[in-house]
Give the backbone structure.
Amino acid sequence: MSLDYNSLLLAVGFSAACLSLTLFGIWLTSRSEKFLLTWAFSVLLVVGDVFTYDAYIETPTRVLGIGSFILLLLGFSAMLGAARQFRTGGSPLPLLLIGGGASLALTVPPMALGFDGLGFMLENLLAAILLFATAREYWKGRAEAPAPIIGVAALYLTTAISFLLCAAVLAWDGKIVLGHAPSNWAESLSLVVVIACMTGIGALSLALNQGRLARRHRFEAMTDSLTGLLNRRALFDMHGKDPVGPFTAVVIFDLDSFKAINDRFGHAAGDEVLKHFAGELAGSLRSGDVAARLGGEEFALVLKRTLPEAVEATAERIRAAFASRRIEIDAIALECTVSAGFAFGSKDGISFDKVLSSADKALYAAKRGGRNRVTASEFRRVG
């Protein structure tokens, strides 16, 4: 082994250590992103492999060789688990156990029996397979943030190819017993590739996490935390600037006697009632419809490409379903009702505020009429 190779190997170790610390630091700022912690742990295993393998180069014993295999393949299996965790939010343990167990079952016995050349061939091949699988996981999740995720997938793919090349060169040589660490041009090339790719993955992981945080903050700013529906601000951001046409309707719902529920059963009970109604509302949405909580016990539904009869039927269905629901709270079954009013835009287009105001007037007409009913605006298509 040349000094240049050892220097490259140590550079890989320090680069991996920096990446692990970077990922751990990012996780500390955003602990909900658990995949970052798994990722940091996986890279830490790779750091352990680098220094174990460096010791193996100097003293090629079976114990050090097996230790190197265990650390590298468990590290790459954990990376695969982190990629799945990133994409789905699920636990990384199944892939860690399956990937690590299968790869070690194939690589450790040859090394333990003295067939180190065969062991290194299989190690490189299985490392490549794990890295290919990791790249595939990121590729499958690319819709979230195409540029950085495709970049991460490409870097994992490049690293996988470098390991596959190492396996191919060893297989071409055909030596199943080496007695020393592999030494060829593919090994040196692989180290250069790993250094470059780890640096890129670290940079892209920062961009990816910042993007996720920004999207989460934007989502939280637009969402009502209690019901999960859009809030008033989001509703006006979506519809407040454009004129409302004749086939777009706004329905406003207001829970009947909601203050009495809060006063008699407490605000926790009131919150449960709000969540149940929000669920009823969300379950009635078509593609393109929008539901929001305007505040308190008041909700809005925006329906596009629709007619008065369809809007009235939708609002009536929601009203009837909510009225028939028994909401269990502390062994008490609450029966609640809701009133609704709706209005349409106009052929020439009018402001969202005006349509909302007309729907609000229709709502209060429903309240005056005895509650638990749906009322249309006096002019269903306003203007």
